[in-house]
Amino acid sequence: MRPGCMQPAVSMLDSRKVSLMEIHPDYTAHDINWLQWAAWIESQPLHLRDEKAKQAPPPHLAHFFKMTPFDAGAVLNKLKTSTNVNRNMVERLQFEVGVAKQSAETMRSAIQLHIAQLERLGEIADTAGSVIASFGDAISPAESEFGRSRKRK
Asked: Which sequence spans correspond to the domains of the chain?
């Protein structure tokens, strides 16, 4: 084989290896094992390669890969920060609920005030109607007499 014939395949495997290392930062392995995984992916049908790269190492290579140990202190700090963020979100939500309740109470008071005003206006309208009816009853007979007496003259 000529040296130039293998170069595209090697660069392709190298590129796939780097990609795998970026996709799976929680795994540690020797460089050769990353290359084996890359070669296995490149041997798959073209339409499956990207999906296979997102998955864990295949069973025949899995024993070469170890999960990266994690720093418990860092995890606890992140958890504490996350908890603080969540607590702040809950406190903000509780505050906003309080504001919404206060607005609802204000609206309810305003509605009750308007209902009372409408009831008073209704009473005033009823009273005015009664007064007008009384005037009508009081004026009608006199007016009738007055009207009859004018016609006679």
From this structure: 3-67, 71-153
